Amino acid sequence: LGWVKVSLFTLLGTKGYTKYPLRIENSHSGSKSANQPIPNDEQIRDVLESVGLRRILDRLGERQALDVVTDWSSVLSIGEQQRISFARVLLAKPQIVLMDESTSALDTDNEKLMYDLLDKSDVSFVSVGHRPSLTDFHDTILRLESDGRWEVKPLR
Questions:
Q1: What stretches of the chain adopt beta strand conformation (E)?
Q2: Among 42, 68, 114, 134, which one is least packed by beta carbons within 10 Å?
Q3: What is the CA radius of gyration of the chain?
Q4: 109-120 pLDDT, tens per residue?
């Protein structure tokens, strides 16, 4: 079982922003594997388009957009940053991804689009969130109560 190693810092270039993280860690042996192919520009463009961020490429100019260096956290809205996170997962193709409030800044149409893309990618996912609409994209729920009780139940 592998997972995508996550970091709290933001990369500045568009390529780096969408390609990071791509190192996969093997939880059984503890060894690091860098065998994951680095996506090419066309793959990055395709994924950005699939998550609804084509206008970023259009705004910056098709040829240079992936090489622009900027502080993307001040350029992109929170919703756009969340869609970039989905693009990263789609490019990295981990076996499983753990997501915390990953669509909280998205409208319901974009939330559905992100989860549909994730579902088609064969990536297993666990979501933490407060939106009732999240149940539409999962088949099991773990409910944690403030008094320490918990419950697991199927949604389908």
A1: 2-4, 24-26, 32-33, 96-100, 124-128, 140-144, 150-154
A2: 42
A3: 17
A4: 999 999 999 999
